[in-house]
Amino acid sequence: MRTPDSELNDLDQAGLRRHLRRIDSPQGVNIRLAGSGEFLNFSSNDYLGLANHPANKASYTVNIERYGTGSGSSRLVCGSQSPHHELEEKLAALKNAEAALTFSSGFATATGVIPALCGKDDIIILDKLCHASLIDGARLSGATIRVYPHNDLPKLKKHLAWATEKVQANGRILVITESIFSMDGDRAPLQEICDIVTASPALFMLDEAHAFGIIGPKGRGLAAELGIETQVDLQMGTFSKGTGLSGGYLCSSRSLIDLLTNKARSFIYSTAPSPSLAATISDCLDLITGDEGDQLRSKLWTNIHNFRTKAESAIVPVIIGENEPALEAAEKLKNKGLLVPAIRYPTVPRGTARLRVTLSAAHSDDQIESLNYALAEFDSFH
Ligand SMILES: *Cc1c(COP(=O)(O)O)cnc(C)c1O
User: Fold this and answer.
1) Is the peptide bond before 275 cis (omega within 30 degrees of 0)?
2) How many angstroms is it from 356 CA to the middle of ligand 1?
3) Which among 109, 113, 131, 347 is the best mutation to test ligand 1's pocket, defined by most ligand atoms within 8 Å of the CB?
4) pTM of the entire predicted model
């Protein structure tokens, strides 16, 4: 039988072995790495700088006093605490949906929701660059899976026509995409996809993980920016990125949410997130949708456009090509005190290894400029 060490060795040989890097400071623009000192951080998804923000910390402290630390059980066992209900009501209103359900992470949301809605007689159609949680959710469901090349609308139409023909009378077709793609930072042609899907019998699921808090009026996401939330049957997202906390959500119709409460296994068989966390997310939604949220978004978009005028989100890839040169580029930047991760296969396709820059509202103009300066060497667009 193969041993763990032989597998690790194979990863080493292929240049694909990953190691955890220890951080000795809170999350933020300036972080301290164990043994190697301070770095300017361009690698986190804390887009609004809320992970260590005074308002989030103050709210979390008060909510721990009020609600305690643990929830004690799944929400279907002991009972469902009021902070979870208040959060879900607030979120549903924000997303222009009838109801919402929260999960312990975005990953748990996808792997709970998709298999709850689809089974072996159903068909799931996804964009090729969809996040691992969506792919795993689709696989776990046992449904027939069709993947279309990234943002390829004719191919999506073709899969949908095929699925509409093939699906049984009682079957379901589910189309899944993201509003912002996590490794390219580009947007889906959402209006067009929405038009295609709404003209078919399929359900439409949209993952707004990298858009929530950042894009659209009050940070409500790309579907809100286009005014099409009510045409998206399942609006998914996470509280771990723009919100600076953790957890996942799904907004939908009342009956779909009631069905998920009965069938999503990652919801049913997992202890509810801490009620103090739920209450803190609620408070943070007020911040994100208020004046301070507008100011943070305005600063973030200034930073994004100062870095690359045409960037579509806070994620900006600098494509290098092969794995080794990408790793070397990241190492060179690190030697200059800048933390920008190299992303390799299998996270991105072979031959497209890249530096993945993520920007935050907490970066200063000078910090963006030093990144631009340091990157000039690697970036053919510069
Ligand atoms: C990060 C991410 C998730 C997972 O969310 P977590 O809360 O981090 O588990 C799901 N979908 C997409 C597109 C993501 O980028």
Assistant:
1) no
2) 16
3) 131
4) 0.96
- Give yes or no: 89 in active site: no
Residue spans of alpha helices (H) in 75-152:
82-94, 106-117, 132-141
**Are 109 and 248 contacting, i.e. CB atoms less than 8 angstroms apart?**
yes
Q: Is the per-residue pLDDT at 34 higher than 70?
A: yes
The pLDDT value given to residue 128 = 96
Q: Which residues contact 271 (CB under 8 A, 6 or more apart)?
A: 70, 71, 72, 73, 74, 104
Residue nearest to atom 6 of ligand 1 (CA): 106
Task: Kindly name the residue from 178, 184, 233, 283 that is annotated as catalytic.
Answer: 178
What's the CA angle centered on 19, arms 185 and 105, to 5 degrees? 55
CB 233 within 8 A of CB 256: yes
Extract long-range pairs of 158-161: CB within 8 Å, 24+ residues apart.
159/125, 160/125, 160/196, 160/197, 160/200, 160/202
pLDDT of 323 reads 87
Which pLDDT does position 379 carry in this prediction?
Answer: 59
Q: Using most ligand atoms within 8 A of CB, pick from 113, 127, 182, 212 the residue to mutate for ligand 1.
A: 182
Q: In the 8-state DSSP scheme, what is residue 264? A: -
Tell me, in angstroms, the distance from the centre of ligand 1 to residue 51's CA. Answer: 16
Structural domains for the chain: 20-47+314-381 (3.90.1150.10), 54-288 (3.40.640.10)
Q: Is the pLDDT of residue 47 over 90?
A: yes
Q: Is 366 a catalytic residue?
A: no
Res 46: pLDDT: 98
70 Cα–ligand 1 center, Å: 23
CA 133–ligand 1 middle distance (angstroms): 7
The answer on pLDDT for 15 being more than 90 is no
- Average pLDDT rounded to a whole number, residues 263-288: 98
Give the N- to C-terminal CA distance of the chain in Å, as an integer: 50
